[in-house]
From TrEMBL:
Keywords: Cell outer membrane, Membrane, Signal. Residues 95-225 form the SusD-like N-terminal domain. Gene3D superfamilies: 1.25.40.390. Residues 1-24 form the signal peptide. The keyword Signal applies. It is found in: Cell outer membrane. This is RagB/SusD family nutrient uptake outer membrane protein. It holds the Pfam family SusD-like_3. It comes from the Bacteria. The keyword Cytoplasm does not apply. GO terms for cellular component: cell outer membrane.
């Protein structure tokens, strides 16, 4: 968008040379067929288009269309991969190759595409005359939020990365992870100060639009960034504000968080918007954006059970078994199990057929477990082979805020105060009162309990390995051995490989990026 195009007409050039009176200005022409950055940023319509482009980076293969969920899920002890694609299978085995940037390199590239687009908004929109000052603030606030979100992923997954705060420079210096987290928190705080609680009560072209970043989303991610840095008082303060907004709650049915129905519900704080009915027919694998791209996700086919999808990701038996450690108050298995995975259970249905009947002729499938979250498995689709799921990705739920808030309370020595927030999550699935079955837990016992609660509540949602890493379990020999006993993929863990490598292309092309992550 910033390039000025020089157009040479044979006739014009011939006549100019014939006259022998040519200046550089004569040759520097802007094509009327292309819009430049200088001509684009003119009014509020351009401002909204600009911030929408920053959102669009959430929809491509590098981010939530496919790659980012894979990178977040596969390293945890709740997932495994037997994918024939080595770049995918090796993620969970901590064996990502520097020479093959598939998946992780696409994610890195797309995060920085999103950052670049957000930077353009932050550079240009302040100078646009927009009559509605609140609309202008909302646009700028969304750009801060999105830059913070892309940086959050980059810093959290790649450790020491560049922190571009302008789109005007080609190269950006590699920074420490501490500097990265400081910028993430700064961006989210800026977003908090500019964003509305909801778009239902605003006026302007964005009125009532779902999927845009809100104050609650910015506060939640600000708290999460503090939590990941063990800044528990600051995290608690942010989560306290989210709870105090009074606009979020848990949906009654846990499974509603992962289906096409009930999207953007009262529990969803921020979700990526996918839709089968809008956009073109092509898949958004990346590269130059095209109007032919659809707005759909490839997660469902990638995680889908065999004969309906590729089953590149599967739950572990450790996860399956942990769901059954505690029965509900009515003596039943935790209902989150059936919402999370398909398995051989009487009456278990998927895509309009019964599990046991469909896999009866294949013992390896019949006795396996497969992913159910985010699958179009209610019978409305025969399978996922068209690669076009319209299910929104709920990347931050209110349940997460409640459990992170409980964690902060526990880490601040207020263990007894953590019980009610955990119990809100347990009550939804009819689990016993924790204060009754496990009264008076120590701080360490509560840490273990919160780890268990988070494992079951957020399985296959990209949270588990983040938790493992930030809790320091990989540096704890006893915990690492425990992880190995649950998921053999941890046997190939090498210190430093809790992070992905900096893509070699970035190191080759950017002279200011010189330090590869440890372990590679």
């Amino acid at each position: 968008m910033k390039t000025k195009y020089i157009i040479y007409s044979i006739a014009v050039v011939t006549s100019l040379f014939a006259s022998s009176c040519v200046s550089d200005d004569d040759l520097d022409q802007v094509s009327p067929n292309f819009e430049t950055a200088d001509s684009f940023w003119q009014d509020e319509t351009d401002a909204i288009k600009g911030v929408n482009a920053a959102y669009a980076s959430l929809l491509t293969d590098g981010t939530y269309m496919r790659s980012t969920p894979l990178l977040l899920d596969l390293k945890g002890d709740g997932t495994r991969s037997n994918s024939p694609w080595s770049a995918m299978a090796n993620v969970g085995k901590f064996n990502t190759s520097i020479s093959d940037a598939s998946i992780y390199g696409w994610a890195f590239e797309t995060y920085y595409q999103g950052i670049y687009r957000a930077n353009q908004v932050l550079e240009n929109v302040p100078g646009i005359e927009i009559e509605d000052a609140n609309l202008k603030n909302r646009i700028i606030g969304q750009a801060y939020f999105l830059r913070g979100l892309y940086l959050f992923h980059a810093v959290n997954m790649f450790k020491n990365v560049p922190l571009p705060l302008t789109s005007l420079e080609i190269y950006h210096e590699q920074k420490t992870q501490e500097e990265g987290w400081a910028q993430v928190k700064s961006d989210f705080q800026m977003a908090v100060d500019l964003l509305p609680v909801s778009y239902n009560n605003v006026s302007g072209p964005d009125a009532g639009q779902k999927g845009r970043a809100t104050k609650g989303a910015a506060l939640s991610y600000l708290g999460k960034a503090h939590l990941f840095n063990h800044e528990y008082a600051e995290a608690r303060a942010a989560f306290d504000e989210v709870i105090g907004l009074g606009v979020y709650d848990l949906v009654p049915d846990y499974r509603q968080n992962f289906t096409k129905e009930n999207e953007n519900n009262i529990e969803s704080i921020f979700e990526v918007q996918f839709n089968r009915e809008v956009g073109g027919v092509d898949l958004g694998w990346g590269g130059e954006p095209s109007s032919a791209w659809g707005k759909t996700s490839a997660r469902a086919i990638t995680y889908g059970p065999p004969t309906f999808g590729f089953s590149d990701v599967q739950p572990t038996w450790a996860l399956f078994n942990e769901y059954q450690e505690e029965l509900t108050v009515s003596g039943e298995i935790d209902p989150r199990l059936d919402a999370t995975m398909f398995y051989n259970k009487p009456g278990m249905m998927l895509y309009g057929v019964e599990f046991s009947a469909h896999y009866a002729g294949n013992a390896s499938y019949l006795n396996e477990i497969f992913c159910a979250k985010y699958q179009n498995s209610d019978g409305s689709q025969a399978n996922e082979y068209d690669w076009r799921s319209g299910i929104n990705e709920r990347i931050l739920r209110y349940a997460d805020v409640l459990l992170m808030y409980a964690e902060c309370l526990n880490e601040l020595g207020q263990t007894a105060s953590a019980y009610p927030y955990i119990q809100q999550v347990r009550d939804r699935v009819n689990l016993p009162d924790l204060a009754t079955v496990k009264p008076g837990m120590t701080q360490q016992e509560m840490r273990d309990q919160i780890a268990h609660e988070r494992f079951l509540e957020f399985s296959l949602e990209g949270h588990r390995f983040d938790d493992i890493r930030r809790w320091g379990w990989l540096q704890d020999p006893a915990k690492l051995e425990w992880l190995k006993s649950r998921d053999p993929e941890f046997n190939s863990y090498v210190a430093g490989r809790e992070y992905f490598p900096i893509p070699q292309s970035e190191m080759d092309n950017n002279p200011l990026v010189t330090d590869q992550n440890d372990g590679y």
